[in-house]
Amino acid sequence: MSRIQAVFQALKQQNKKALIPYITAGDPHPKHTVNLMHSLVKSGADLIELGVPFSDPMADGPVIQRASERALVHKVGLRHVLQMVKDFRQQDDKTPIVLMGYANPIEAMGAEAFIKAASEAGVDGVLTVDYPPEECETFIAGLRAAGVDSIFLLSPTTETARAKLIVKQASGFIYYVSLKGVTGAANLDIAEVTQRVNEIRTQTDLPIGVGFGVRDAATAKQVAAIADAVVVGSRMVLEVEKSTDENLLSNVSALMQELRAAIDG
What we know:
The chain has helices spanning 3-13, 33-42, 62-73, 78-89, 103-109, 111-121, 137-145, 160-169, 190-201, 217-224, 234-241, 248-264; strands at residues 18-24, 48-51, 97-101, 125-128, 149-150, 152-154, 174-177, 208-211, 229-232.
């Protein structure tokens, strides 16, 4: 059983929902990332989604774009991100880590080399925004053989036939994008999200996480009522952006505790 499966199974037994914060590796500075990851766990994170900085993102809104730019100033690349995961694993071998990023850095490293390095570093899942499910069967098979889950996005505009292909290839959990557009784009329509999540449940037994529109504790609570996991990205990165070196960990921890209390409540 993978770390991701184990976490969702344990939470289900406790009648709890997963809280999955997203941060961009290397933001605001590479020296903070591992400490931030540990702080997220201590403050209630069940999984961590770690963004790989990229210069030309297509799914990330302005907040996460700025985070990538801050990380890229320090030349943080895929190999650095994998080293951060390895460093995190020295103290935490239980919390699942999902890398979220784009195909270009993986292609530059080479898919086989990346899969080997990710597995050795302790990565549990990979979400590659621009790897279409129709074209990455070999990549998915390689991840599966290495014990790494393939996380896919489903959106409000995903057609039924394509959704069936995605849930067939996915493992770990399904990430449902709660709104049209990029991360942090707009207020989500909870009724529409509920309907779509229920439709997805008829196609898969995998846990379903919802993200891209969770901007506060109240929204997190609404999402937790219908999904298995709440993913908080732009709001978390915004907290990083407005913090100083001195209050970074305390500010992020306070936000996490607020979200955790809302979800559990």
